[in-house]
Amino acid sequence: MVIEKNVQKNIEKIKKIYGYSTDISTRIIKLGKVNVGIIFLESSSAGLTVSDNVIKSINMIDDNKEIFQSVYDNLKNRIFNSQMTTTKDFNKFPYFLSAGFTIVLTDDSDEAIVLETRMPLDRGVTESSSEPILRGPKDSFTESHAKNLGLIRKRIKDENLWFDEIQIGKRSKTRVNIGYISDIVNKNEVDYVKKQLSKINIDGILDSGNLREYLISEKSAFPQVQSTERPDLVSWALLNGKIAIFVENSPIVLVLPAVFIDFIHTPEDYYQKPLNISLTRILKFISLFITLFTPAIYIAITTFDQIVVPNELLISLAVQREAVPFPTAVEIILLMTIFEILRESDIRMPSNMGTAMSIVGALVLGQAAVDAGIVSPIAVIVVAFTSICSLIFTDIDFMNGIRFWRFIFILAATFFGLIGVAIAVIIFILKLASLENFGVSYLAPFSPFNPSAQKDAIVRFSMPKIFKRPSYMKIKNIKKQGDKHES
Amino acid sequence: MKAKLIILFLICIFLSGCGNYRELNQIAIITGIGIDKKDDEYEVSVLIANAQKSETSSKEGESQPTVYSGKGKSLVEATKVVERKTPKQLYLGHINVVLISEEVAEDGFLKVADWLLRNPESRKKFYLILAKDSSAKDVLEIVSPLESFPSQNIATLMGANSKTQSITNSVTYSDFIKAILTEGEEGILPSIKIMGKANKGDSKDNLDQTDPETYLELDAIAVFKDDKFVGYTTNDESQAINILKNTVKQSIFTINYNNGLTNITTKNISSNIKIKDTDKFKITINGEARIAEINSKANLNDKNVIKQLENKLNKKIEKQIKTVIKSMQEKYQSDIFGFGNLVYQNYPKSFKDVEDKWNDKYFPNIKVNVKSNVELISTGSIENTIGKEESK
After folding, report:
1. pLDDT one-digit tens code per residue, B110-121
2. Same domain (yes/no): B384, B271
3. Of A23, B248, B344, B350, whose CB has the highest number of CB atoms within 10 Å?
4. Does A318 contact B58 at a Cβ distance shorter than 8 Å?
């Protein structure tokens, strides 16, 4: 639709499109014989900015003698605003208005001036709450799209850091940016991601979480896309040739492709001494094994394979279990369920009720359950230990993947004992090893074994010795530092 | 396809049942077994470790050891009687010790060996001990203040002493059966004795005294011929047996020097038996020694004194070894050292002719040459003897 050379008519049309919603603000100012119309939404534009920048400059034009042919040209050249575009398409008006722009129309032109007067509807940059860090930058992404991109630009000032924009959602018209460093990344991956995203035909998306299922069909319980609110993690990933997906209004950025060890590593790993971090990483791997297998192994050795338990321990276990009415597997699954319920309700509950929660959780369900003879003390220890070890990992999807497989192992142990656990472990490894995204194997760099990437896998070598980006990533430019490193 | 696989998997789960599934509170964990024989019947006593002490014990993980016994014509028959008395399934996987009485041992061990060897649950790595001068059941019942239950007490006693005390020798069930079945070798077993009154030791009162009235003590080595118990050795003989069998690392010898007693501890002592002919053997002992205690005047800075002590020690070792071999040859005619096995390995053809009469006819007549080369390498933390220098 074209814009008519009549301000009054245009304003009437806009009001009709918006169903005469009351947050539409219009004003007509007369400059000589020419009407100048101003349209904005008071719900998404900042009124003060509109008065200060737009209306003031329109009024000041009157004082100047005309040096331009028309009022429209005069306005276009003299209006105060850093962001200004023009459009001849009436159909774009609703998008601009909803996004917080102000539209200036004149009687003598079929073009409209569009000025950015967005109301800052977001919180400031705050500390990350879901991925806390001891040593390192503490800022995190917010709901503001520009700020999120800015947090990355601030860190990587290279002009090869590109943000490709796609608009997704017929009604929400959400801006989605695909960030990558153009001379490192594998272009095919970017094209694939763009293709997948442009295929989406949905009314609206509200968070980056809505997008991940469209990107990769994740058949495993373990995540293949990393989601984070840490700008330093995203920047590090971009430097390693990964792709980041920023979604307007979402403080969570998606990073892909992600492999298994990405969920064990943290950005903090690169800010501390390599020796100590290597030990921490080994500890994390041990925790991973503990949290996956402890309950299953406990069930297997107490109900099938008692022979592997040392004498004193077996007798102690047997005496503790004497008064418990349930089978071991039921006891463990019961306690695990209670812990999961506690965890879930702790997330949903207002934080000022947390104290009551911990008292109920620790005293009633722990101590009292043992005293009442419902569960044995060792079962509480096993479940508590398992749960604590799973809390070492920050990614919620990863934790839930562990939980899923832990349950499979428990079932295998309940029915088949240690042999069942062994078979389940084989299936577990087969499943993980068969995963792949963008040609990157999920268990890389362990399977297929990649010698050069071992410098930053279980142990971390000192930074000056890591010359290459992870070589299992199929990227254009593998060199990270050294003589041939460009720019 | 996928649905079929899932159905197959579920069938596997539900049809397999739960194999050898058993909860811990359904089993009676047996940690010790005593085998006695009275007339024609065997009495099997089992020590069950996971009985509850009182209501509160389940929280503290304490247990009250309990002994059940049953009689029968065979061991399995006897255990069936025991099972009738216990509400739980007997579980043999965690046996620490098996005690046999002298009667059982004299009657022939192989008659009772089959059950525990054949049972797939039992680990076969438990200690086998002969109960000296009392029934195996009595020994099994003695409680000790230092360990939570009797079988553990015996097992720790064995484990701790077999390496440092040379009068005993820890033998596992499978070791012993292997020794019995080896060509030209006989078995030995450690023995254990109740000190004090046997009927007092099974009550908890025994634990409340600072000087327990009843306790267990490891005693000399029991010698077997074929699978039958023939007699005990003396302490000196036990020491020599241990050195010859290389089962002891540390051993103490007392020698006379300068009208006083000197104790010398040997370290890493090892023996080596070489065969020269079907009836001639050479034994060499190597090792290091350290002075543990010296109560007479001696100038230990003098190399000659050290040499003298060394010679005396070696003489003593040689004599002890010769004595024990002679004793075995004459008293028991039992080749516990495995000389016959060496003959079997080196001269298999000629051993065939002597095999049947080896113990009775040929072993008593073999000639053994013993040479001990133990070196005295240390005088301990101090060098010379304490006391004022005597003016000469």
Report:
1. 888 888 888 888
2. yes
3. B248
4. no
